[in-house]
Amino acid sequence: MKYLSILLFFSICLISCEDKDELEKANQYYNSGDYNKAVQFYNKHLEMKPSHEIAIYNRGRAYEELGQYEKAVDDFLKVIDINPRNMGAYLSYGKHFYREKDYENAAFQFEKAYKLNTNSSQAATLLARAFHKSGKVNEAMEYYDIAINNDGENAEAFLYRGALKLHLNQPGGCNDIQMAKNIGYEGAADLYGQYCK
């Protein structure tokens, strides 16, 4: 009986270590850009732990990188079912709608993410972008302001707030674009040269 207990203990350790190794390998493949391999190892990990929230979310992101958007969305929705407070899953699900030019539903998902963490500059920026694209300029401006207040180095928020100010003939647009340029946002220098010189 003693030997059976020891054998069982080592078997559990071996399975746990192997499972952890597969998740680590999956993350390594994801970080190196080999998304097919990443999916393969996330699948292996999920065979052992089918409700592992992080693995499902990361697999969804890998599917997204591979352009397999339906599979990605399925994973994001699984994550939301497992943990309705997973901000990343709402942001990723919102990006799906944004990519499809369904800005109303994108804003709906981004707002859920923002409400989970009102200090998130990223969530505020994405919400502002969705409002901006759907023509809700006052709401867009409000959330660009929030994004910048939450992170004074958010170049994307500066750039798009500046563009919106220029479009609305409001002062300060070029200052915002200059800030985005100073922070190093790609395309900000071109936009500044086109509209602010």
From TrEMBL:
<feature type="repeat" description="TPR">
    <location>
        <begin position="121"/>
        <end position="154"/>
    </location>
</feature>
<dbReference type="Pfam" id="PF00515">
    <property type="entry name" value="TPR_1"/>
</dbReference>
<keyword id="KW-0677">Repeat</keyword>
<dbReference type="InterPro" id="IPR050498">
    <property type="entry name" value="Ycf3"/>
</dbReference>
<feature type="repeat" description="TPR">
    <location>
        <begin position="87"/>
        <end position="120"/>
    </location>
</feature>
<keyword id="KW-0802">TPR repeat</keyword>
<feature type="repeat" description="TPR">
    <location>
        <begin position="19"/>
        <end position="52"/>
    </location>
</feature>
<dbReference type="Pfam" id="PF14559">
    <property type="entry name" value="TPR_19"/>
</dbReference>
<dbReference type="Pfam" id="PF13181">
    <property type="entry name" value="TPR_8"/>
</dbReference>
<feature type="repeat" description="TPR">
    <location>
        <begin position="53"/>
        <end position="86"/>
    </location>
</feature>
<dbReference type="InterPro" id="IPR011990">
    <property type="entry name" value="TPR-like_helical_dom_sf"/>
</dbReference>
<protein>
    <submittedName>
        <fullName>Tetratricopeptide TPR_1 repeat-containing protein</fullName>
    </submittedName>
</protein>
<dbReference type="InterPro" id="IPR019734">
    <property type="entry name" value="TPR_rpt"/>
</dbReference>
